[in-house]
User: What shape does this take?
Amino acid sequence: MTAAQRKTSSKPKRRHARRRTGQKAEAPDASQNPSAKGPPRFGRWFYGTIGLLLVAAAAGGVWWYASDDSSAGQYVSDLTLDQIPFDGRRAFGYLEALCAIGPRPSGSPGMAKQQEYLIKHFEALGAKVERQEFYVPHPRERRRVKMTNLIVRWHPESKERLLFAAHYDTLPFPMLDPKNPRGTFVGANDNAGGVAILMELGNRIPDMQLDYGVDFVFFDGEEYIFSPYDKYFWGSEYFARQYRDGRRDYRYRAAVLLDMVSDKDLQLYYERNSVWWRDSRWISEDIWSTAARLQVREFIPRKKHEVRDDHLALHNIAGIPACDLIDFDYPPWHTQADVPANCSALSMAKVGWVLQEWMKALRFPPQAR
Assistant: This one.
C-alpha cells in the first residue's frame, strides 16, 4: 500500500484504549462522566479488532476500513523548506536529538535526560521553566512513579494567556508492533515531533510582539500503559485540576495540543471534539483559516477522527477552550517503526509556520471563557 493509498483509507475506529469514538468522548463535563477521563472498558469485539489488526500486520500489511475520501492528492502543498519562514531543519534536528536519548517513558532515565535537555533549551531562550511534580501508582507494581509536567512561560506578567501543549513521555513498549510488542519505542512522531516544533517555536517567541502571555506545557504520563486497561492522561488531568482548583491571577483563553504532527504524509483534519465544543470551535477555524491563507493545504477543514487525547482534560476539567492538532492516519503508530525516518522536516515546518502566523494575528474573542 502506497502512502497515497494509506491516506485514502481510514483505520478502525479503535485500536486500543487511548483513542475512543462515540458520544461519551465528547462529554462537556468530564467530572460528571468518568468515561471521558479514563480509558474505557472493552468487550470481546475490541480484542477481536486488535487481533485482526496484528494478524494482518504480521502478514505484511495493515488492516484499514475503507473511506470515501478519494482526493488525497489535492492536500499536498507545493511549498519547500526554503520557502517557509520556520526552520523545519532545526526542528527536525531537535526531534532526532530527542529520539537519540532512546525510550523516554515516565520515571525512566531517558525521561530525566529529556527533561534536562528541554529545561536547558528553554532557559537559554529566557523563558521561565517550572517543574510540576506529582506521583501516580505504577500500573503493574506496588510502588509509586514520580511524574513531572514541564511548564514553560513567556511574559509571566500577562494575565491573558495562550497555552500550547504536547505530551513528552513515550509508550513503555510498542504494543502494536507485529513482530516485537516488547521492543524499543522511541516515539518520533508520537510525540517527539510535537515537542520539537514547540522547541523551534520557542526560538521565535522572544522576537514576537504579542499582547498576551504564552505558556508551553509538556505533559508526563500521557500513555504510561502496559495494557489497554491502564489509565491514560495522568499529566494533563493533574495539570487541569491544579489550574481549576488553584489560586491564580491569570487565565488561559485558548489551548492548542500538538500530537502526531510530524509524519511525512501529513494531513490534519478537524478533530471532532475540538469543533463540537462551541467555546472551542473558533480555535480550529482560525488555525485552519491561517493555513488556507498561507496555502498550506495539509490543513483540511473537514472533520474526520474523534480522538481521546490530552485536550479533553484541558477542556472538560480546566474549562479551557481547546483544540487538538493531530494526524491520526499514521501506520507506524505504537510500533517500533515510529522513528525519525518516518517523519519530515517539511511537515514540521508547515505546522510550525501556521501556528507562528496564527499567533501573530490572534485576537481572543469576547465569548472565550
The radius of gyration is 19 Å. Confidence is low (pLDDT under 50) at residues 1-17, 20-68. The chain has two domains: 1-9+41-70, 86-361. The chain has ten helices and ten strands.
